[in-house]
Amino acid sequence: MNLFTRITATLGATADSAVSRFENHDAIAESALVPARQAVTKARIRHNHLRKAGDDIRQRLSSAQTEADRWTERARKLAETDEQKALECLEYRRSSLDLVSSLGDELAAHEAMEESLTNRLTQMQQRLDGMTHQRNAMRSRESLAKATDVLDRIDTASEHGVDAIFERWEVSISDTEMRHEIHQDIVTTKPLLQREFEAEEKQAALQLELAQLRTSKESADNA
Predict the structure, then answer these.
(1) Do residues 8 and 113 lie in contact, with contact meaning Cβ atoms separated by under 8 Å?
(2) Counting runs of H as helices and runs of E as strands, what totals does the chain give?
(3) Cβ proximity of 76 and 85 under 8 Å
(4) First-to-last CA distance in the chain?
(5) Max CA-CA distance within the chain?
(6) Residue 211 to residue 59: CA distance in whole angstroms
């Protein structure tokens, strides 16, 4: 088994072991939160139904009040010309006002119940949010603790310690670099005869360049 295979095997086995230890706790916490979420969801649905029922009562109350005002106006118009019809209008007005009173009492009781349910729903949501937050915090803490434990055990292991791993890696790289440098020295070393010819050719080229400079200078002076 080579170096990187050993590292991968060590990390994988340790990480799998760590995950298996905290997954059970997470699953238990999650199973406990499921009915809590369902209860809050049902309470929110009931609250929405209750709020719609309250809107219906308010609409009926508004209609009853409008009807009472209409019969009042009719009675006022007929008071001088048709007393009998005016009295009948007042009878209808009284019925409408009785309905207004009844709906007013119903709405007051309904709003009190709605407010109570709203407060309870808020408390339930806050408790659920608190439990969810705590579950997430515990999950994060345990994940971090297990990861730290993995790193600590890898770092302190005598055979697979991080320092030992990188030290062996560096030695391997250094050996390869040294072999490459030696090979390069062998490949780039030129025979003595070749170096002598190159030196003579370089010297001849420099002398030719110097002669050309002298010729150009003499031509300039003669001019």
Answers:
(1) no
(2) 4, 0
(3) no
(4) 85
(5) 148
(6) 116
Residue 218 DSSP code: H
List the structure tokens of 8.
């991968």
Amino acid at 198: E
pLDDT band at 8 (very low <50, low <70, confident <90, very high): very low
Q: Which two tokens stand for residue 25?
A: 């706790």
What pLDDT does residue 13 have? Answer: 54
The Cβ of residue 212 has, within 10 Å, a number of other Cβ atoms equal to 10
Q: Which residues contact 132 (CB under 8 A, 6 or more apart)?
A: 33
Tokens of 39: 């209860």
Q: Are 70 and 92 in contact (CB under 8 A)?
A: no
CB 7, CB 84: distance < 8 Å:
no
Q: Tokens 């009562």 correspond to what residue? A: 57
Residue 187 has pLDDT above 80, yes or no: no
Alpha-carbon distance of 70 to 57, in angstroms, equals 20
d(CA 10, CA 18): 12
Contact 57, 103 (CB under 8 A): yes
